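Lay summary

Proteins are chains of building blocks that fold into shapes. Our project writes down both the chain and a compact code for its shape. Here are two examples, one after the other.
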Amino acid sequence: MLQDLDQLAARIGQLVQRTHQLQAERDALRARLRHAEDDAQTLRERRTAAEAQAQELQARLDNFDNETGAQLAQAQATEAALRAELEQHLQTRQALEAQFAAREQEWQARLNARDTDVQRLRVAAAAARERIDAVLARLPGAAAASLDAGLAGASGGTAATREISAEGQH
């Protein structure tokens, strides 16, 4: 019986030792659980902060998208207005260039006509001088007149030749 009691005491000792060991494991597990719960709480807080930051960023992104869309629409409207204005200016420029070309042709035609008139008048003046000289040469006393004409030619000719020369110069 003593031996049974010793065995029982040994088993009780083992049981006590095992109980202390289990209590130590339980305490260690509780500490790990508290640590895991603290980590979980920290992660929940970080997740909440990250979600708040993500919502803020999403709101800013939506605001940016709205502003960008409005600016893009405004830029497109401005571009369309500028293109229309450019087209109008181009048409105005083309019309002015056409008017200028027409006026230039008109002035060129006038100038050519005036040059033709001047040339005709010069030819007519030269022919008239020759006829006047021929008529003067046939007049009696032409020798005296020819001497006077020589002197008058040096000083500008007769009054009729001076008039014809003046008309040719205009």
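And here is the second example, written the same way.
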Amino acid sequence: MTPVKSSESVQGFNSVELLGYYGGDETHALSAWTSTSRDLTDEKRNRMGKLLHDLASAGHATPFEKSSLHFLITSDVASHIHLIKHRVGVSVNAESARYKELKDDKFYIPVDWDEEERSSYVGFMEDALKCYHQTLERLVAKGMSRKRAKESARFYLPYGNQITADVMFNFKSFTHFMGLRYSEHAQLEVRELALKMLQQVLLTGKFNMSLSAFKYIDVNGVIVPPGKLLFSNFTCNTNIFFVI
């Protein structure tokens, strides 16, 4: 697994860090060529992009399962729920307010709200987090076990509270996630998370042919806006997608 260094502030914003990755375009191509010969000649290298494009277009997805992408994602609860709906080829482990007492108050602030709404919301979130901490201590003072106090005090935490999750995709599952979440029909917050994930994968330089095969980048290596993406060649058993 190749480590990647990247981070950003989480207070008020959702964040993505690509912790590492395994494989890439060559891994996908060699997996496909296992059917005939894994010998990687110059001639094969020159047609690797076309091979990956043909695989994606034909829905032959198995070779794309052979690489993995490992992220650390801090997001609001609503976006976290979107994440955990993806289970095939995806592994998720997240911080738990049941087992962990949340000491660091962090919450997402909607980027498209005006200053009046943002100010009102921040006040609400600060009050909710204060209630969480104070209730936890009161319950313990009244004789409740700290374990039970932690797991019940979290009912005060709203959807804006942020959760950090360790998420790993195989590349095929990553494209399925992108198809639903990097979409003009997806909620703004999860769509922005998907874009950050896509940007960091592109920066590795290891998946460009595969991203191009699925139409996520154009011929110049630039990420395609979600409204202009074509999903008809998507590697799934159906051409119908539902965004929840």
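What can we say about the second shape? The longest helix spans residues 115-141.
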